[in-house]
Amino acid sequence: MGGTVTAVSRSATYAFSKPNRSAINLLAGLGVEGDAHAGETIRHQFRMTYEPDLPNLRQVHLMHAELFDELALKGFDVSAGQLGENITTRGVDLLGLPTGTLLHLGGEAVVEVTGLRNPCAKINDFRSGLLGEMFVLEPDSEEFAFKAGVMAVVRHGGPVKPGDSVVIELPPTPHRRLERV
C-alpha cells in the first residue's frame, strides 16, 4: 500500500495558501521547518488564543490530489498548496486511514496521522462555494464526512520532495476512525 508525494508547500506566514517548494524539511515533534504552523503546541491562528498550551496535533497537513480532480469536475480550479496543505499525495486514501497510521515519506521522514482537517469558512473566501464541497453526507447516516485532508505530527524528521514514495504503516488493531482535530 502506498502512493507518491506530488507537491510540497510551506509558508512562514499565516496565509491561506502555501507556495509550492522543491522540497520541505520535517522536524521531529515540530512540523515543517519554516512553516507558521510548526511547533510543539497549537499553532492554529484562532485556537492559539484559547488553547495555547495543548499539543499541536496539526503539525503537517496532507491532502490527496484526487480531491483536486474531483473539484475540477465541479468547476473549481484548485491546485496543490492552495488549500493550505504542506504535502499533496496521489494514490493514498488519506481519509480512509485509521488514527495512528504512520506514513513514511521518502527515505527518512515519518508522520503519524492524528485526524481530519476541520475545514473553515476561509475556504469560501478562497473560492466561493468551495466549503460545501469539503463535506459529504455519509451513506445511511446523518453524519458528514470531511474531505479537506488529514493532519499529522512528525515522528521522524527528514526531507520530503515531489516524487517521493508514501509507504503506509497501519497501527495495531482495533483501528480508530479519524476524527476532526
Automatic annotation (TrEMBL):
Residues 18-169 form the MOSC domain. SUPFAM superfamilies: PK beta-barrel domain-like. Pfam families: MOSC. InterPro entries: MoCF_Sase_C, MOSC_domain, Pyrv_Knase-like_insert_dom_sf. GO terms for molecular function: catalytic activity; molybdenum ion binding; pyridoxal phosphate binding. This is Molybdenum cofactor biosysynthesis protein.
